Amino acid sequence: MQVLGIIPARCGSKRVKDKNIKLLNGRPLIEYTIDAAVQSQGLDRFIVSTDCSQIADVCRKAGAEVPFLRPAEIANDVAADKAYLLHALDFLKNNEGYAPDAVMILRPTSPFKTAEIIDKAIELLKKSKADSVRTMTLSEGVFHPYWMYKKMNGDRAIPFSEEAASGKFYQSQLLPEVYRLNGVVDIISVNTLRSSENMYGDDMRILELEEEFSLDIDTEFDFKIAELLMAERAY
Description:
Helix content is 30%, strand content 23%. By secondary structure, the chain is of the alpha/beta class.
C-alpha cells in the first residue's frame, strides 16, 4: 500500500501570526512534523500543501517537497480538508502519474507527533482494511462530555446530553470511555476519500495516543506549553 503524507499549511493565522512557521524552541513549528515524516518508514512520499511562498521556502530548506502552491479558493478559512486533499491527489496524478492508495494528513500544529505514530496508523489501516484511522485521546474527568453543559437563555446551564442529565455519573470512575480527536494523524483510503460523502467513511478506527503526544497548537498559550514540555524533554 502506497501512502502519501500531506502537510497542510495555509498562509496567515487569526490567533497567532504566521503560526506554521513561528519559532518553537528555536525552530519553525512545521519542521517538527517534517522531521517525523522524513523518519517514517511507512510513508511512500510526503508533500506540503501551502498557498504561501514563504512557507514553501521554509519547508524545502527543511527537506520537504512542495510541488505546487495551493489555489486561493481552497486555502481560506472555510475550505474543507477534502478540497486540498483531492487537489493534491489530482495534481500528482495528472502531472506525474502518481496515485497512492491512501493519504495521510500531517497537521503541523501537532509538534509532538513521531515517526512511530505515523507508522502505527499506517499499519492499523493496512491490517484492519478500514476506511480510515484517526488518532484520538481519552477524555477524562472534567473534559468528559457527560460533565459538560450548554448555555441557554443567558446563563442557564443545560446538560450536554440527556443521559448525562440523569445524575448517574457523579464520579469520574462511573463515566464511560470516550475519545476526542486530537488531529495528530489522520489516514484515509483514497477510494473512501473519492467515493464517500463522509470523507472518513463508515469504518473509522482509533489509534489511541497519550496526552503527551496530543498537544495541538492554536494560541500563544499553546506555544508556551509546548516550549515548557520541550525544555523538560530536552528537545
